[in-house]
Amino acid sequence: MQITLVVPELVWPEPDDRETLADLAVPGLATLLARSRMQRSPPQSLEAAVGDAFALGENAAYAACRVHGEESGPAAGSAVWLCADPIHLRLHQERLILADAATLEIDVNEAQAIVDALNRHFPDAGRFHVASSDRWYLELAAGRELGRFEVLPLSTVAGRSVVRQLPETAEARWLRRLLNEAQMVLHEHPVNRQRDDAGRATINSLWLWGAGRLPTASADLFTDVWSDLALARGCGRAAGSRVRSLPDGTSALLAQAARGGQHLVVLDGLQPCVQYEDGAAYRAALRTLEGRWFAPLQQALASGRLRRLRLQAPTAYGMLWWESDARAQWKLWRRPQTLLAIARDLAAATA
To answer: Where in the chain are the domains?
Structure first.
């Protein structure tokens, strides 16, 4: 059995943050990393890492893939899709800061009411869909094309300042007008008036990204995909992989998986901690991953139950890769480092 494990933001992005990194004991992960072969490439988003795992290439149609991975909702078909995720933009020190739906606590009824209003206002643009309270989509009307559409995934801009929301291309001109009108619809919507009266952040814009049609993912890359991330599930379905819900940990995965095969596992719980600079949540989440995943994976490798592990981590330091097998895990002279030391080494090599 071989496992590719994708863990975005595995290493805290501030190497001098002793409050977060000092005394953070994760011996299973530290041993695993010390006895693996590491490589580093330029930074990528989680979405790009998943797309690359399925050999989708540049400008992958993340929206169509994500739709394909939803448990309920429309079929992706052959339409052009965009993620139309709800966000809140606020002005802070002359900068626009983006907050994603994770901070907005949107009720699914609120989401549906707003999307219904958008569909009434834009009957010729296509159709908006709600898959969950925080994942919305725009299915473009037949004949609508966007050309090359370069917009960062929401995960890379959440909690950060943004300059522009849509590309300055001729093909996207109509979409920029639509977004401007959509912001006016959102401003006047009763849901937002109620949220404002209650002192809650409003849903005052949409993040439109991931445009394209459902691609044909490369087959035979993974026999199984273990993830609750809609994008990873959709890519797996497109590639003909067996798609499964994320188990509680390594032990549960090994018990359920057939012996052999290529398995993709996506653990994205650290990402929101880093996005919103919550060091305490990062420490707690990493300790949970250590107990459920990293320490058991290291033991499974050392015992030979797991033949090969590839750990892939999109981080601020770049795309980090660690590869290991049973033999490597018995190289006892490779001394584990603390995460604080690893972060400082990575930062020094980046400078």
So the answer is: 2-57+217-350, 62-212
Cβ neighbours, 10 Å, residue 43: 15
Residues 6+ apart with CB under 8 A from 348: none
Give the β-pairing of 205-212 and 135-140: unpaired
The pTM of the full predicted model, rounded to 2 decimals, is 0.92
Position of tokens 């093909």? Answer: 171
pLDDT-based confidence at residue 44 (cuts at 50, 70, 90): very high
Partners of residue 205 on adjacent β-strands: 87
Residues paired with residue 225 on neighbouring β-strands, in sequence order: 243, 264
What are the backbone dihedrals phi and psi of residue 49, each rounded to the nearest 5 degrees, phi first?
-65, -45
Distance from the Cα of residue 161 to its chain's centroid: 19
Give the list of residues 6+ apart from residue 252 with CB closer than 8 angstroms, or none: none
User: How far is residue 10 CA from its own chain's centroid?
Assistant: 13
Structure tokens that stand for 87 in this block: 């966000």
**pLDDT of the residue at 169:** 85
The arithmetic mean of pLDDT across residues 276-304, rounded, is: 95
Fold for the domain defined by 2-57+217-350: Alkaline Phosphatase, subunit A (3.40.720)
